[in-house]
TrEMBL record:
<dbReference type="GO" id="GO:0008967">
    <property type="term" value="F:phosphoglycolate phosphatase activity"/>
</dbReference>
<dbReference type="InterPro" id="IPR041492">
    <property type="entry name" value="HAD_2"/>
</dbReference>
<dbReference type="Pfam" id="PF13419">
    <property type="entry name" value="HAD_2"/>
</dbReference>
<dbReference type="InterPro" id="IPR050155">
    <property type="entry name" value="HAD-like_hydrolase_sf"/>
</dbReference>
<dbReference type="InterPro" id="IPR023198">
    <property type="entry name" value="PGP-like_dom2"/>
</dbReference>
<protein>
    <submittedName>
        <fullName>Haloacid dehalogenase</fullName>
    </submittedName>
</protein>
<dbReference type="GO" id="GO:0006281">
    <property type="term" value="P:DNA repair"/>
</dbReference>
<dbReference type="InterPro" id="IPR023214">
    <property type="entry name" value="HAD_sf"/>
</dbReference>
<dbReference type="GO" id="GO:0005829">
    <property type="term" value="C:cytosol"/>
</dbReference>
<dbReference type="InterPro" id="IPR036412">
    <property type="entry name" value="HAD-like_sf"/>
</dbReference>
<dbReference type="InterPro" id="IPR006439">
    <property type="entry name" value="HAD-SF_hydro_IA"/>
</dbReference>
Length: 233
């Protein structure tokens, strides 16, 4: 990877689930199995999708509510086991969203851009995605749930900014949930929402998205507007 540092470099930080990859079937299936393993009725698909992006145990607590203290830990373990099994099976299906790879290719080629990841997934989960889609080497900084509090805490974005040495206002988070937008704004970064993930467009806008994209093809133009705005300061 070329060294890109200095006050004019832009950091583009991607969320993973619901933004780069469509993991909803895997997540919903693993959640069904985790709840079944503990003799519990599974939450609805809509409930599950509303918490994707949070770190796993935080997500579980939100789903089980009353008995969260007793159940969140065991359900988290059951979910991890179910997800791991699914990854080994023929049901494994976590496709990149249309246009994602081309967008990463275009941005990787730019001298004024470095790429990062901020995800509620574990490091192991991110590595599995990198292996699956051959994405290794594209990201200058990768922040996971293993090392930070759950989104919307700004820790992941602040760490990505520190690791790459960019100015906070030159960092932009691309994500599909309100957690991503709030995390970005709390870290002093910009936020771009994507409309193909798991939270509604209006919620993203209300949480601080400067724009909500309807296709990856629109990303370059949205970023360019940010870059030019910063350059003009
Ligand atoms: Mg997401």
């Amino acid at each position: 990877m070329k060294a890109r540092k200095g006050p004019h470099v832009n950091l583009v930080i991607f969320d993973v689930d619901g933004t780069l990859i469509d993991s909803q079937n895997m997540i919903v299936t693993a959640m069904d199995r985790a709840f079944a393993a503990h003799g519990l009725a599974a939450p609805s698909r809509a409930e599950v999708l509303s918490i994707v992006g949070l770190s796993l145990e935080t997500a579980m607590r939100a789903l089980v509510k009353e008995e969260a203290d007793a159940l969140a830990g065991p359900l988290t373990e059951a979910y991890k086991a179910a997800f791991f099994d699914l990854r080994q099976s023929e049901e494994h299906h976590e496709p990149l969203f249309p246009g994602a790879l081309a967008a990463l290719d275009r941005l990787s080629g730019r001298e004024d851009v470095v790429l990062g990841i901020a995800t509620g997934k574990s490091r192991r989960g991110v590595n599995a995605i990198m292996d699956l889609h051959n994405l290794h080497g594209r990201f200058a900084t990768i922040q996971t749930a293993d090392d930070h509090p759950s989104k919307p805490n700004p820790g992941m974005v602040s760490a990505a900014i520190a690791e790459t040495g960019v100015l906070p206002q030159r960092a932009t988070v691309i994500g599909d949930t309100t957690f991503d937008m709030e995390m970005a704004r709390a870290a002093g970064a910009r936020a771009i929402g994507v409309g193909w993930g798991y939270h509604p467009n209006e919620a993203l806008a209300a949480a601080g998205a400067q724009i909500v994209l309807s296709h990856f093809d629109e990303l370059d133009r949205a970023l360019e507007a940010h870059f030019l705005e910063e350059a003009a300061r």
